[in-house]
Write a structure and sequence with these properties.
The chain is an all-alpha fold and 366 residues long. It contains 18 helices and no strands. Bound molecules: iron/sulfur cluster (2 copies).
Amino acid sequence: MIPQNYIEPDIDFIRKVGKQSGASFKECMQCGACTVVCNLSPQENPFPRKEMIWTAWGLKEKLIGNPNLWLCHQCGDCSSYCPRGVDPANVLSSLRQINYEYYANPSFLARALNKIIFLPIVILFPAIIILLILLLAGTMQIPDGDVNYSLFFPHLHLNISFSLLVLLVAFGMVLSIKKFWSDIKNNMPGVRSYSLVKSFFSVLKTILTHKQFSKCDTHKYHYWAHMAVFWGFILLILVTLVAIANVLFFEYPMSLMHPAKITGNIAGILLVVGISIMGYQRLTNKKGTGKSTYFDWMFLIFLLLLTISGTITQLARFGNWSSAYYIYFFHLVCVWIVIIYAPYTKFGHMIYRIVAMTYAKSVGRL
Ligand code: SF4
Ligand code: SF4
């Protein structure tokens, strides 16, 4: 008969978190300093001390679908104060990454986007599909004269194909959220004190203002960098939607002084500034950012490439550069990687975080 307190550690899980986080979590002495300094840890069921021991013991089932992981905003305060240099912030980040893979639909996409070995396929796949769309539309011939992207890139075909793919990916995300929601409810049962709709809008306000990041004590740049990237990205999505409507129903190409163009350029500046701060900190401030993985870099680099290639695409059109069509092609591949792969890259944390925070709010833990 199995004793009541018997635990079965998942050794592969321990190894995986150790390798990804680079943290020596086995040295955690359970002092609780990390939980005390964490400004986001609720009084009831606080974190991350117990998550540290669960990780060291390989209790995977307690760490998959654990809402606490997503209430953490990786400010790094706990790692700064840990007397054993264990780096709990990075352990939690690694646990979130494992959760992405677990919940992703289809999961092979999350695995492919998490390993550098698959990078050529990750880039080649959208490049081939875009070329096929051009071939099917019969526009695969670089036109003479002034640069006019719509003569080479069939915007109607591209918009329809990209929109269908986004819908497909969104359907996969809905399945992931359904499973995630059921697991967080089981892992942290609670009595509902707010309606889900009220909780969702309250969380949305917190996210839009980055209220949780502003509670960070030791690394204030987190707030400003995330704020710039977050709003830059939101503006970019809005501008993209306006641009699609414009291409289909109104004027094309848009003038440089079109409000959507101006907003797009403001979004570009915000993104470049935010990503540069994040990248610089990741390279120079290992203590504040923890160990940076390929998963962290991949999303940041492609978001930066998307922003830069978008700006150069405009310049190339106004300057009638001979390379303009190639630059736009590269830009489209970046759009695919950032937008269509979004739920499988680090961007996905935003979706899981909103879901976990909404649940936490609804049961009075936020
Ligand atoms: S502060 Fe460090 S040693 Fe103390 S419980 Fe947290 S991780 Fe463990
Ligand atoms: S990284 Fe920040 S939010 Fe996350 S557990 Fe540590 S102190 Fe709390």
